[in-house]
Amino acid sequence: MILPIVAYGDAVLKKKCADITEAYPNLDTLLENMFETMYNAFGVGLAAPQIGLPIRLFLVDTTPFSEDEELSEDEQKALKGFKRVFINAKIIKEEGDEWAFNEGCLSIPDVREDVFRQPKITVDYVDENFKKHTEVFDGLIARVIQHEYDHIEGILFTDKLSSLKKRLIKGKLNNISKGKINVDYRMRFPVQKKKR
After folding, report:
1. Where's the active site on this chain (predicted)?
2. Binding site: residue ranges?
3. Residue 73 catalytic?
4. Which of 2, 124, 170, 171 has its CA 20 to 30 A from that of 132?
């Protein structure tokens, strides 16, 4: 089932999310719905807060990036078919010189900006079967994981921009939070308070 994606301005996107246990109800169905929702919106990652759930869960499928002809064959190969579920993730180490990459977000449509992140990360997480992993990721895979990880920490990529950049996109962000945007996928907009 395709779920509506929560738009910028909703409080759930600013919450630090809670861990879940194996007893979390209907987890398999939730994961299925999240993958379907992400693919429907042509995303490469989706975090639970983006569908209104303040839990430490996100998923990633970097396959669309593997078609980028500017990448080396090895990079394309690494990205193709990289599909993961991250539950209760914790980035325990970030390494290397920060590099810029133009990021966007399904919760913030039509806004893309360069964000600086470190290229190599070490992550502790459990998968959909609650099997523990500690893995090192780099390049674009690390970048997608960092972006989704920020979501479960209550951080949006726009929070990482300079104050000048934030001022320049303020109008766009206000429009998104008011639902004044056309997108090709279902969205849920924050409830606007009526003016008295």
Report:
1. 148
2. 105, 147, 151
3. no
4. 2
Domains and CATH numbers, the chain: 5-188 (3.90.45.10)
Report pLDDT for 69. 86
The amino acid occupying position 164 is L
- Binding residues for Fe cation, as ranges, are 105, 147, 151
The residues, any chain, with a CB within 8 Å of residue 54's CB and separated by 6 or more, are 12, 15, 17, 18, 48
pTM attached to this predicted model: 0.94
Q: Would the pLDDT of 181 be above 80?
A: yes
What pLDDT, in 10s, does the model give residues 26-70? Answer: 999 999 999 999 999 999 999 999 999 999 999 999 999 998 888
Average pLDDT of the chain is 95
Residue type, position 17, single letter: C
For residue 195, what is the DSSP state?
A: P
Q: Are 144 and 7 in contact (CB under 8 A)?
A: no
Q: Cβ(38)–Cβ(46) under 8 Å?
A: yes
Which residue among 75, 94, 148, 153 is the active-site one? 148
Calculate the alpha carbon distances from 152 to 66, 86, 89 in Å: 25, 11, 9
DSSP state of 191: P
